[in-house]
Amino acid sequence: MTTEAKGKLLGVIGDHDTVVGFILGGIGEINHARKPNYFIVEKTTVDQEIEATFNAFCARDDIAIILINQHIAERIRRAVDQYTQLRHSSVAVLEIPSKEAPYDPSKDSILNRARGLYNPEDFR
């Protein structure tokens, strides 16, 4: 069955608990090039490897959404912000909390972009 027939994938970049949780939930896939749609970031993982994986996921035509732990996105913030600001980006990037690090809405690139689109007066 082709990717088009199955639909698009969810990509996950995160700590061990986050990625394993999503894999147990059924998101784990390996494409025709034997590349998985998930990446576990260990304490010894260097930022360049995280950024390379993020960029590779963004370039894949079989991934529609990338979930990334926010504390990991902070390590490659420039790359995440640069990609999410592209108007023609075809992959949605969502920052999620982890067990080890709480979610900070002030650091979320998507939320910050949305804040710039709306005036607080619009909601009164």
Provide tags for this entry.
proton-transporting ATPase activity, rotational mechanism; Rossmann fold; ATPase_V1-cplx_f_g_su; 124 residues; disordered N terminus; alpha/beta
If you had to describe this structure to a student in words, what would you say it looks like?
With 124 residues, the chain is an alpha/beta fold. It has one domain: ATPase, V1 complex, subunit F (Rossmann fold), CATH 3.40.50.10580. It has helices spanning 3-6, 16-24, 47-59, 70-75, 77-84, 109-117, and strands spanning 9-14, 38-40, 63-69, 92-96. Strand 1, helix 2 and strand 2 form a beta-alpha-beta unit. The longest helix is centred in the middle third of the chain and has 13 residues, at 47-59. The radius of gyration is 15 Å and the shape is globular. The model is unreliable at 1-5 (pLDDT under 50). It comes from Caenorhabditis nigoni. Keywords: Hydrogen ion transport, Ion transport, Transport. It holds the Pfam family ATP-synt_F. Belongs to the V-ATPase F subunit family.
Give a quick precis of the structure.
The chain is α/β, with parallel strands linked by helices and 124 residues long. It has six helices and four strands. It is 40% helix and 17% strand.
